[in-house]
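Hi everyone, sorry if this is the wrong subforum. Our group has a chain we'd like a structural model of before ordering constructs, and none of us has done structure prediction before. Sequence below.
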Amino acid sequence: MGNTVAKMLEMYGLSTDESLIDSLDATWSESEIKEYCWRVLRTFPDLKKENWSTGIEGGDYIYSFSGHYVFITDDIWSFNLIAERSVLKLLVEQMVELNKTKHYDI
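Answer:
Right subforum, don't worry. Here is the predicted structure as tokens:
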């Protein structure tokens, strides 16, 4: 499976890019990262699944939006997103803003 991931990353120019998890401070749990990341990604009307490799417990996906690609690992054990720094910055900013409003959603 690792070979498939490496090929996907290389094919979409993401093999040297960074992780969303590393871009957020340690106060974020993995479940919060997953929830808020997907909530932000779904706001992009052109979000499109480009490529994927799935198994029983989840999978690895390439999505595109606004002319950018992101690699997402989403399975029962973990969640992570890899993208270029400018995309990570955009996602983190929007996730932080969305997280600030969670107290008002009650």
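For your construct planning: Helices lie at 2-11, 20-23, 30-41, 85-100. The longest strand covers residues 48-55.
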